[in-house]
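DOMAIN: structural biology
WANTED: fold as tokens
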Amino acid sequence: MGVRAAQTGLRVAGAIALVWVLYLLRANVWLRLYPAALVTVALVVFAVSLRGMPLVERIARARGEALDARGVAYCRAVTRAWVIFLSLHLAVTVATAFAPPAVWAFYNGALAYVLMGAMFVGEWLVRRRVRRG
């Protein structure tokens, strides 16, 4: 197992352990960790896919895209970018679970979606530029 996979596994195990500890302590904050659990799943899927065919490449091929070596490298880079984004997003999501409810609601109910939308739009704009070049 590679270092990245081991780190991802430790993050997932830590997140799961944290949720269980909070549940056992009857702390209501564990309910606010639900978005973190979803982000963790997405992060693991993207990160693990880097060991083989990256998820973005799988999606492109499923859409019928013909990928040359440059396209494959681009898909791998986009998958890495999503891993980085989701890692940062997970950290903020967990942090907001312990913040006042208004902060949690603002980030997880609005700002997180704006940031993900910006990531999608940014990647789409970069992809258009890469295809032209």
User: Anything to note?
Assistant: The mean pLDDT is 89. Residues 101-132 form the longest helix (32 residues). The helical segments are 3-24, 29-32, 34-49, 55-62, 69-97, 101-132. The two ends are 36 Å apart (CA to CA).
